[in-house]
Each structure stands twice: as structure tokens, then as C-alpha cells.
Write a structure and sequence with these properties.
This protein is of the alpha/beta class. The protein contains ten helices and 26 strands. β19 and β20 form a beta hairpin. Bound molecules: alpha-L-arabinofuranose.
């Protein structure tokens, strides 16, 4: 049978996957390169507020729609002493940061981070150091942050200007402890025991915390699978989430497979769900673990330069410039996260500013949006409500890594605002893809809108010289006829189609 040259999506208001957790639109701030220093924090910058936060960056973070921010690492956290970042700023120690071969001044620490989360309107997600430190230090950090008052540590927080507890709910039990690059790297048995004991103490101090155990730092890790099973054998009862990390390198692979990176993410998620549910069965548990995809992005890793044996302050590290193609791939990764919203209930785009980030800044200069800013901002804004189970019919193309892959990647959300939003990616770099949406029991009202991110040059990017070279544009609206809507998805494009729903049959 010849492959169809158009795509079709069948929707039904009664077939839903689940409600989108707003924590799916999290991001990540690490003490790495210029993410903190001269990124979101730059005392003396013309746009800085009295605390040194850049208000131009805060405005972009709000526009991006980020709901939650993980901190302070990443690899950085595994050698970090949280006490270095509290108290009078001029008394804080300067330390070596072995993870990124940099000098850490500790000018920005816990108090500054919580002030940042309030200013940005985001929920904090804190990581504890389980590399060079352990159970006791994690408990002390939690007591400092969340205990109301009347102990040395909670009163110390008060003395540092924060009499009210920070009330931090989300806690990562270390970072990428399976990775040989991690300071304090552990075997799955060592980490599983440590995570379980740390979790037990943390829950004794504050029973309201939500705890995230480290899963694998990538599906390609040689220990993937075994790591999850062993860690959960120790810690299943103590934790709420298992983490996943994935980065996709545009340079490291062929273009056809790169455009299909969501296939890898899809497989990774379904494998980790299976591993979590196998552990659940072994524990005879009623609790089902959630997945926290707390690092995901596109990363030109092969362009990373090794350290030069120097120890610079806030060096320009991992400052990838993203193209239109990268934005389309990032959009397809967002679609995959949404399609698994029943199990993936937290996620962090890594990272937020300057370091593999949607927002870039110049020291003393402007801040601007990368191409990848746009799909994230649109999804964070419109993907609120019920994700629908779609039936998708699409032509396919061949990839060396994933075999035949559909040209269309899509999901749809029936929003709390009564609007039906279809997010759709056309992976074909050469041809438009006509798409018919069969609306089933949705009775649509006018007007229908269609926003698209695409460019005749898929390598186009936003830069300091041309910060708005790539932005989404609106295509002329099409009308619904007999319960069907036909739109054209331009070559290699990210599309957001919005239909107000008059009623549901
Ligand atoms: O986000 C950059 C780095 O990637 C993080 O520090 C680490 O956790 C991961 O390997």
C-alpha cells in the first residue's frame, strides 16, 4: 500500500491520558558557567534590583512560563557545602568547584535563590549533596530551610533575615550518582542505601517533603535498568519520584535520527515506567512512583571544550546557540512529556539562563530569547488541562537509529479555559505536511488560530546581533467543516493550533 502523503489525527473528548501537572514546566539553575553569575544575578547591571537579580531576565522567565526551578546542581551539588552560601555575603568562602573547574564565590546562595524563586513566581526544587556528604548534612539543610523556629539551625535562618520557613517541598536525593564523572559516584547498592536513609531522616524532620531518587543519567548508561531496580529495591517505600535525564546532541548523530530524538525519550520513559512498576510489584506496594524528568534538553556536547587547567569565575561554558531545527526537536520532546503526563509529573528544562538555555544574557548588556524559548513558552501557557489520547495516522521516514518514524508528532490538550490545543511537529525538512484533525465529539467555535515556528533556513538562530530573528508567526486561520479541520504544517515546523470548544458531545 503506498504511504499516505497527508496526516490525520482523530480526537475524542472522552479519551484522556490525564491532567497536566504544572511541574512539567520546570527548569534548572546550576552554579555552572554564567547561569547564576551575570545570568540571573548581576549586581550593578542597569536592570538589577536591590538584591542583584536582573529584572530583564526575571521578566523573560515569567514570559517563559516556568513553574519550578531545580537548584543548585547538577554536578555542582555533589561537592557543594550549602553552609557556604548562607549568612553575610562578604564573609562567605571562595571555593574550588571541581565539577566545572571554576571558582565559586558563594555570593549567591540559599537565601538569594529563595528570593529569586519568589521574584520569579516559581516553586523551588532543592538538591542535596550525596556525593561528598550524606544523611546528616541533608537533614541539617532541611531543618535550616523548613523548620519553623526554636532550634539553632532554624533560628540561624531567622538571623539571616528569613524568620518564616522556606517551605521547600521538592527535594532531589543527589544528582546523577550513577555517573563516573560525578564527585562521590556510587554503585547502585551504595546509593540506594544512602538515598533510603537520607529520605527517612528528611521525612522525620518534615513529613510534607516530596523526594526524588536518582535514576539513570541517560538511557545509554551501561548500568541502565539494573541501576533503577537496585536503587528501588532499597528506596521504593521512601521516595515519591524517580528521576530521568536525557540530552540530545545535534552534532553527534545523523540529521534524520536527530529530528526523531523524541523516539528515544519515548522509549526511555516507557522503560522507566516498567522498571518502577516491577519494583512496585516486588514491594507489594499500592503507591505508584511518579517520574521526574529533571534534566532534559538539546546539548551540543561534542562542541564542549575540555577545561584548560585554569580556575575561572563564571566562565562562558555550554553557551549553545539553538537553531530553528533545535526548537522543533525541543517541541517534539515537550509533546512526548505531555503524552506521558499520567506518569511524568515533573520535568526540568536544563538549564534556564546562558547554560544550554532558552534565555541568553550579556554581562552589562541585554537578555534575549533563543529559538527554543518559543515552543516551551507556548506549551507552558496552553498545555493546561487534560491530555487527550490521539489516534495518529502519519506518513513515515527512515532513520538509521530508530527505523521508520512518523513525520507527524502530535498531542492535544483540552484546556481548563475550554480551548482545545493541538501541538504538532512536522519532521520533514523538505515538504509541507497537510494535517486533518477529526474533532469527534468536540464542537468547535471560531476563531481557529495556527501559530508556527519554521524558517526557510533551519539553521537560523537568535543572537545578540539579531535577537528576534526567529519568532512564531500566525498563519491564516482555517474553518472547521463537518467536524474536520485541515491545516498545512510547513517543512520542519512546530505548530500550535487552537480551537475554542463550544460544546462536547
Ligand atoms: O546540565 C548540565 C549537567 O548535565 C548537569 O550538571 C549534570 O547533572 C548533567 O550531566
Amino acid at each position: 500500500m503506498p504511504a499516505p502523503c497527508t496526516a490525520e489525527v482523530f480526537l475524542d473528548p472522552h479519551f484522556t491520558t490525564g491532567e497536566v501537572d504544572p511541574l512539567l514546566f520546570g527548569s534548572f539553575v546550576e552554579h555552572l558557567g554564567r547561569c547564576v553569575y551575570t545570568g540571573l544575578f548581576e549586581p550593578g547591571h542597569p536592570a538589577a534590583d536591590a538584591t542583584g537579580l536582573r529584572t530583564d531576565v526575571l521578566a523573560l522567565i515569567r514570559e517563559l512560563g516556568v513553574t519550578m526551578v531545580r537548584y543548585p546542581g547538577g554536578n555542582f551539588v555533589s561537592a557543594y557545602r550549602w553552609e557556604d552560601g548562607i549568612g553575610p555575603a562578604d564573609l562567605r568562602p571562595r571555593r574550588l568547584d571541581p565539577a566545572w573547574q571554576s571558582i565559586e564565590t558563594n555570593r549567591f546562595g540559599l537565601g538569594e535563590f529563595t528570593a529569586f524563586t519568589r521574584a520569579a513566581g516559581v516553586e523551588p526544587m532543592m538538591a542535596v549533596n550525596l556525593g561528598t556528604r550524606g544523611v546528616a548534612e541533608a537533614g541539617e539543610l532541611l531543618e535550616y530551610c523548613n523548620h519553623p523556629r526554636g532550634t539553632t539551625l532554624s533560628d540561624l535562618r531567622g538571623a539571616h533575615g528569613a524568620p518564616e520557613p522556606y517551605g521547600i517541598r521538592l527535594w532531589c536525593l543527589g544528582n546523577e550518582m550513577d555517573g563516573p564523572w560525578q564527585v562521590g559516584h556510587k554503585t547502585a547498592d551504595e546509593y540506594g542505601r544512602l538515598a533510603a536513609e537520607t529520605a527517612r531522616l528528611m521525612r522525620m524532620i518534615d513529613p510534607s517533603v516530596r523526594l526524588i531518587a536518582c535514576g539513570s543519567s541517560g538511557s545509554g548508561m551501561p548500568t541502565f535498568g539494573e541501576w533503577e531496580s537496585t536503587v528501588l529495591a532499597h528506596a521504593y517505600d521512601q521516595v515519591d519520584y524517580l528521576s530521568l535525564h536525557a540530552y540530545y546532541d545535534p552534532d553527534a548523530t545523523d540529521q534524520a535520527s536527530y529530528l526523531a530524538s523524541a523516539q528515544d525519550m519515548e522509549r526511555f520513559i516507557t522503560d522507566v515506567i516498567a522498571l518502577c512498576d516491577a519494583a512496585r510489584a516486588r514491594h507489594r506496594a499500592t503507591k505508584r512512583l511518579s517520574l521526574a524528568f529533571d534534566e532534559w534538553n538539546i546539548w551540543y556536547m561534542s562542541r564542549q571544550r575540555p577545561g584548560q587547567g585554569e580556575w575561572p569565575r563564571a566562565p562562558r561554558l555550554l553557551e549553545d546557540v539553538y537553531t530553528v531545527a533545535d526548537a522543533v526537536v525541543l517541541g517534539s520532546l515537550l509533546i512526548t512529556l505531555l503524552r506521558h503526563c499520567d506518569r511524568v509529573t515533573a520535568a526540568c528544562l536544563a538549564q534556564l539562563v546562558n547554560v544550554i538555555a532558552p534565555i541568553m544574557t550579556e554581562p552589562g548588556g541585554p537578555a534575549w530569547r533563543q529559538t527554543t524559548f518559543h515552543p516551551f513558552a507556548q506549551a507552558a501557557r496552553y498545555a493546561r488541562g487534560q491530555v487527550l489520547q490521539l489516534h495518529v495516522v502519519s506518513p513515515t521516514y527512515e532513520t538509521p537509529k530508530y527505523g521508520d518514524v512518523p513525520l507527524l508528532h502530535a498531542t492535544a490538550v483540552h484546556g481548563e479555559d475550554g480551548v482545545l490545543t493541538v501541538f504538532a511537529v512536522n519532521r520533514d525538512p523538505a515538504a509541507s505536511l497537510p494535517l486533518t484533525l477529526h474533532l469527534g465529539g468536540f464542537v468547535a467555535a471560531a476563531p481557529v488560530s495556527h501559530s508556527v515556528l519554521a524558517d526557510a533556513d533551519p539553521t537560523a538562530a537568535n543572537t545578540l546581533a539579531e535577537p528576534d530573528r526567529v519568532t512564531p508567526r500566525d498563519l491564516a486561520g482555517t474553518a472547521v467543516v463537518n467536524g474536520r479541520l485541515t491545516v498545512t504544517l510547513p517543512p520542519l515546523s512546530w505548530n500550535v493550533i487552537r480551537l475554542p470548544v463550544a460544546s462536547v458531545r
